[in-house]
Amino acid sequence: MTGTGALQVAEWWWLYCLVGLLGLAIGSFLNVVIWRVPRGESLFHPPSACPQCAHPIRKRDNIPVVSWVLLRGKCRDCRAPISVRYPLIEALTAVLFIALLWRFGLGFEFLAFAYLAALALALTCIDLDVRRLPNVLVLPAYVVLAVLFVAQSVVSGDWWPLARALIGGAAMFAFYLIAAIVYPGGMGFGDVKLAGVIGMALGWLGWGALIVGSFAAFLVGGVVGGLLMLARKADRRSAIPFGPWMVAGGVIGMVWGAAIWNAYTGTWA
What is the percentage of the chain residues whose pLDDT exceeds 90? Predict the structure, then answer.
């Protein structure tokens, strides 16, 4: 096991199962968020329905992953295809929650990064769909992460990670803000606001995670943009959403940032 407080799978298998089921349920809710938030619709009313025939989805057809498989990816009423993205989001949320429990153990730190993982999935899909990062999702993340990080600091008695998170959030927000002002066509203010959130999370984990994660976002975005141009799916004037690559950079920083930074500084020491 890696990560302070990580739980042994053999001993806590039931907790991993519960967290996995929670991830499936939240992943199902994320599909609603991804569809309704950009359209300004309520997340709770009316009940979910098929976008083709408008027939309300039955409760037995709303079981994460399982229902999609049993229905063979089609609406029970009109047989219209149901996107494979729905079960993929549900399954990926469950996998991420389990991985985060393995790394952090059960506590406020796990809650913070599980919340961030769910938010990142929703924002990635929304940005790819409509090229927007809605304030209603991004802005509350500052409060949620701050509260959970403060709670974790109270429990652990170590306040330096919180200070580092605040520094990381402010630094990434300022950097993206300058980039958006200097080059408004390539960076939106939605990206600026998301940068502060990602900076808080990476700063909490360490300087290596923050630096590598910040750089990796531009590296991944540049590589993807280059591949799209090579495939003639985009050109230099094409608007390419940057939110997904910020999330990808954040993941790289979180998982490999410390190791990459230690290897780099060790090489040049």
Answer: 67
